[in-house]
Amino acid sequence: MRFRHPDGSTIHLAYCTNVHPAETLDGVLDQLRDHCEPVRKRLGRDRLGIGLWLARAAARVLSTDPSALRLLRKELDSRGLEVVTLNGFPYEGFGDSQVKYRVYRPDWTEPARLEYTTDLARLLTALLPDDATEGTISTLPLAWRTDFDEHRRATALQALRTLSARLDALQDTTGRNIRVGLEPEPGCTIETLADALDALTGTGALTGTDALPETHALAGTDALIGTPGTPTGTPGTPTGTPGTPTVPTHRIGVCVDTCHLATSFEEPGPALDALHRAGIPVVKTQLSAALHAEHPERAEVRDALNAFAEPRFLHQTRTRTAQGQLLATDDLDEALGNHDRGSGPGLPTGAPWRAHFHVPLHAPPQAPLTSTLPVLQDTLARLVGPAAPPRTHHLEVETYTWQALPPELRPRTRARLADGIAAELALARDLLTDLGLKELP
Length: 441
Known about the structure:
The chain starts with a strand and ends with a strand. Helices cover about 35% and strands about 15% of the residues. It has 12 helices and 15 strands. By secondary structure, the chain is α/β, with parallel strands linked by helices. The longest helix has 25 residues, at about 150-175.
C-alpha cells in the first residue's frame, strides 16, 4: 500500500511475512498464494506491499539460481504484490516450535550474518518495483547482550562497515539504493534507540550484561536494573554527545520497532529527536504493539499474563521504577516467578509491566490487560506526521505471534488469519490517513 505524504514523497506500508513459516522457496511461493494475495483481496487493493522474510535456505537458492529469482518476481507481480523491504532479523527456523534465544544467531560477529545480509541486499535490488529505487532491510542489533565484549563489538561494527562498502558497490552496478537498519530489541546489546545512537556514533560504553556491575542483578541471572546503554539514566536519554559515526550512516541506520520501544519504556520523542540530531536515519519502522499490564500485583492480571507465557518465543518483560530505571527479565515466565517454567523470584509488582509480545494492532487483549498501541500512534505521528518531511518512508506491520496467542485467540484457519492481517493493515491505513496522508491506487 502506498500513501502520498503532504511533502509529495511516497510512504510504503507492508506487512511482514515472517508470520507465515517457510524455509524454502517453494514455501515462500505458497505464502504468496495462500496468504498474501488473499489479504490483498480483502483490502480491495490492486497492489499490496509485503515485508518479505527469506530464510537462509530460500535466500541461498534465489542467490544462486537466476531462474528461481525470476520466478519469485513473476509470482509477486502476478499476485499484485510488491516488495520494498525485507526482514533480515531471523536467519532460519523462525517457524519452529521453540525459537527463543536461537533467533539471535548468527549475530554480527559471525561471517554468516554478513553473507546472509549481503545476499538479501542483492536479491532486493531485483525484487524492487520498477518505479522504486530504494530498498530497506531490518537486521539483528549486533548481538544478544551476554558474552558481548569490546572485541566482539569491534568485530560486529567492522562487519557493518564491510556491508556498507558492498551496498555502495551494489548501487554502482544496479542503480538501487539499499539501506540496512539495526532493530533495537529488549535483551540485545542494542536494546533501545539510545543504545543504537551510542553504537552508531561511538559515544557509549560497552552495553550488555558484562558491562554492568554485578549489583545490578535482580531476578534470575539475566535480569538487570537500568536500560542497556543507559545504565544510570532515563530511558530514551543518550549517554553522551554524538561523535564520529562508527559505521557509514548513509547505509546503516535503525529500524524502529514500536513494540520493542514500548517494552523498554523508551519515550519516542526524546529518542527520535536524538537520532535526528545525530544524523542517524530511521531506515524503516515496524508497527507493532506490546502487552501492557497496569496492575501486575493483582491475581487476575497475573492469571491473564500467564496465558501469554508460551514456549515458542522470548517475551522479555520490563517494569520501570519511579527513578526511571528498568527492572528486567528475559521472559514472561521469569517475570511471573513461574518456577516450573522459568527461574528467579520474578519482577516487582509495584509499577506497570510491559512484555515483548506482539499483539494484534486492531484487537488489543481483553481487560485487565491492554496493548501499547498509543506508543505506536505517537511514534508514527513523529515519523510521518504532516508538520515536517517524513523521517522514514517504509512502514511494516509485524505481528508474527498470531499462532502464539492464547488458544482461544488464535486464528484456526487461513481465512481467519487473512482477516486479522487485513484488519491490522486497515487500522494502519486509517492512522496514516488521519495524519493527512493520501492513500494511492
